[in-house]
Design a protein that fits this description.
The protein contains 8 helices and 14 strands. By secondary structure, it is of the alpha+beta class. Strand 2 and strand 3 form a beta hairpin.
Length: 340
């Protein structure tokens, strides 16, 4: 369990959690009320892209509503509602529905642009909120709680290479670590095409997956692909992993594009990067593969030996605005320094 380090005047804790990049994606929900997914997913937790969140429970009763600040701005509307809903769940688990909370959160990367900010955000929020209340929950339980805020957040409760089991209910739909971060020093080089917030959040997109005629074909094909990904990770074999992660990213975007209404997250720059990756591989033998989440940015996965070359080449592409890099990282940690 995570325990707050210091006893503050008000119960306060700060947690930092890494984002993650999925190799087999979570897309589509079987039960939207509890974010039960249609399939298992596998990801790598990212060490350098993280969210830091402080939760201060107002046990003095001064606040009449939760107060949420994200990246220096007061959160309003849907964003604030999502945080409050998650805090409601934690209040319910704590058996104390009275107290509101002050939440201050900071991302060290652009939010809502396909760099999975919701994963690190809800993982950090879950850990900080539960630690501040001294709730004696193990990591697996915290993973299930984080899942309710954002499915992919369940995976950010663990470091390294992680699988989220589809499960049947709240207790079984949780993530587990396959290998720790040290197992494979894989690199994620993110080609940032746009930092604008996506027009349709993944939370809304998940509900639309079943309207695509391609959805069931994708889900049916995943059983063997998941096994291939597990094996490739075990062997640290990128030439085995790479083609599958590209295939599933394209399959997921195929589902998105053919759902009703249609979702098209790509921009011209997204295609420029995908074409370049294939050219570099085919013409120059550069071992690099792409994957894309619900946004226009492209994650390039390669071994550390190729990172500098990939970075150099990406910077020459006209549509790449910036490049962010990360390797695998550990699970969430509690920090002594608070943001409030
Ligand atoms: O956790 P959510 O609701 O933000 O969904 C994440 C969806 C993808 O990033 C596209 C895929 C994944 O598994 O991370």
């Amino acid at each position: 369990m995570y325990r707050a380090q210091r006893q503050e005047a008000l119960p306060t804790a700060t947690a930092r959690a890494g984002s993650n990049i999925a190799f087999i994606k979570y897309w589509g929900v079987a039960d939207p009320r509890i974010n039960l997914p249609l399939n298992n997913s596998i990801s790598m937790t990212l060490g350098s892209l993280h969210t830091t969140t402080t939760v201060e429970w107002d046990t003095a009763g001064r606040l009449s509503a939760d107060q949420v600040t994200i990246d220096g701005e007061p959160a309003t509307g849907k964003k604030a509602e999502r945080v409050t809903e998650h805090l409601n769940l934690i209040r319910h688990l704590a058996g104390d529905k009275r107290h509101r909370a002050r939440v201050v959160s900071r991302n060290n990367f652009p939010m809502a642009s396909g760099i999975a900010s919701s994963a690190s955000a809800f993982a950090a929020l879950t850990v900080a909120a539960c630690a501040a209340l001294d709730l004696p929950f193990e990591r697996t339980r915290l993973s299930g709680i984080a899942r309710r805020g954002s499915g992919s957040a369940s995976r950010s409760l663990f470091g390294g290479f992680v699988e989220w089991e589809q499960g049947r209910d709240d207790a079984t739909s949780v993530a587990r670590q396959i290998y720790p971060a040290e197992h494979w020093t894989l690199r994620d080089v993110v080609a940032v095409i746009s930092t604008a917030e996506k027009p349709v959040s993944s939370q809304n997109g998940h509900g639309m997956a079943v309207t695509s005629p391609f959805n069931s074909a994708r889900v049916d094909s995943l059983y063997s692909m998941l096994q291939e990904v597990r094996n490739a990770i075990t062997m640290c074999d990128l030439q085995r992993l790479g083609p599958i992660i590209e295939q599933d990213a394209l399959a997921m975007h195929g589902v998105m594009m053919t759902s009703r209404p249609s979702l098209l997250y790509w921009q011209p720059g997204t295609i420029e990067v995908m074409q370049a990756v294939r050219r570099w591989r085919e013409n120059d033998g550069l071992q690099v593969y792409f994957t894309i989440d619900a946004g226009p940015n492209v994650h390039l996965i390669c071994e550390p030996a190729f990172e500098v070359e990939v970075l150099k080449r990406l910077q020459k592409l006209g549509s790449v605005r910036s490049v962010i890099t990360s390797g695998p990282g550990d699970g969430p940690q509690l920090l002594d320094e608070h943001l409030v």
